[in-house]
Every structure is written in structure tokens, then in C-alpha cells.
Amino acid sequence: MRSFENKNIETLYSAEDLQNKAKELGAQIAKDYGDRTEELTVIGVLKGSFIFLADLVRAIDLPLNIDFIGVSSYGDGTESSGKITITHPLSKPITGKDIIVVEDIVDTGLTMKALLELFEESKPASVKVCTLLEKPERRQVTVQMDYVGFSIPDKFVLGYGLDLAGRFRNLPFVGVNQGDA
Ligand code: 5GP
Fold this sequence. Notes:
Elements: E1 9-13, H1 15-33, E2 40-46, H2 50-58, E3 64-74, E4 80-88, E5 98-106, H3 110-120, E6 126-134, E7 147-151, E8 157-158, E9 174-177
Parallel strand pairs: 2-3, 2-5, 5-6, 6-7
Antiparallel strand pairs: 1-9, 3-4, 8-9
Helix pairs in contact: 1-2
This protein binds guanosine-5'-monophosphate.
């Protein structure tokens, strides 16, 4: 039995749903950027995006660079504060680059808004946002989202990179915790 099988986690998107969505978004990105001569830079927001990003970039059939930024967005509580702390900086400058920021989930939108403001300071050539999930009911600020995998109801999800207190990132599916995970 796998470690999560006795937990009360309801599957929202299966491994197959997620693979198909990553392939669909990757193909769309490849199409949209296919005529550019500059190499694309894909930036994963740590930690939650790492599994989605791994599937997504394998579906983008273009030369590209991959970088990561570590962001901590929560203060003491579980609500986003809008203030972000960079826990892991980008490894290369993004000035003049076409960048795609890859997130696991846009919830209130505060983290993405702060991140985009930070990236704009470096004057990239263009910025797009790709998020696997978004919760429209929770949005507090309007935020740019160019590629969205799934819009979901206001429920706490985990798996496929998303955690619950640091655990469950390794679940192969996205699930909703039913209470005792
Ligand atoms: P925002 O600033 O948009 O409110 O929050 C974005 C961050 O909050 C995400 O990158 C993620 O780390 C966390 N988050 C928001 N909703 C969920 C959720 O349902 N499950 C998990 N695991 N994290 C979430």
C-alpha cells in the first residue's frame, strides 16, 4: 500500500489528467513562442511548481532555459500577506529575456502580484504566467494569468508538488484533504 492510500484524500485530478493538461499547455506555449529567435526562460516558483514544471517543460518543444525562484509568501498564519521573502534567488539575470513564470496555484493572487512587480524591476523583454491551478473565488487582486490548467473551487488541495505542512508533495495526483491527512 502506498503511503497516502489510507488517508482521506479525494482525487480531484488524476495523474493522467495532470499529464494531459501539462502537454496541452506546453504545446500552446511552444506554438505561441515558436517564431521567437530569443531563447525562452521558464521560471518555476519553489517549491510547489517543481513537478508541474517538470512535466510542462518536456511538452515545450523549443530551446529554453530553466530557472527557479524560492518565495515564502505566508507570514505567521495561513493567509497570504502580499509581502514575499525571496528564499532562493534566480541564478541568472532576466533583463531582456522572454520569461514565463510557472506557479502551482494562484489563490488570493498576492504572491504572483508581488513576484511580477519584482521581475518587472529587472526589465525582462516579456512576461507571461502559467499556473496549474487557480481559485477564482479567493482572488483579492487582479493578476495576470496567461496559461491556466484548471480553475478550482475554494478548497485546500495537495499533491503533485502542493503540500500540507510540508508533506504530500509527492502524491502523483491532486487531491482534496477530507480532514485527517
Ligand atoms: P496567494 O498569494 O495567491 O494567496 O497564494 C499562493 C500560494 O499559496 C501558492 O503558491 C501556494 O503555495 C499556497 N496555496 C494557496 N492555496 C493552496 C492550496 O489549496 N493548497 C496548497 N498546498 N497551497 C496553496
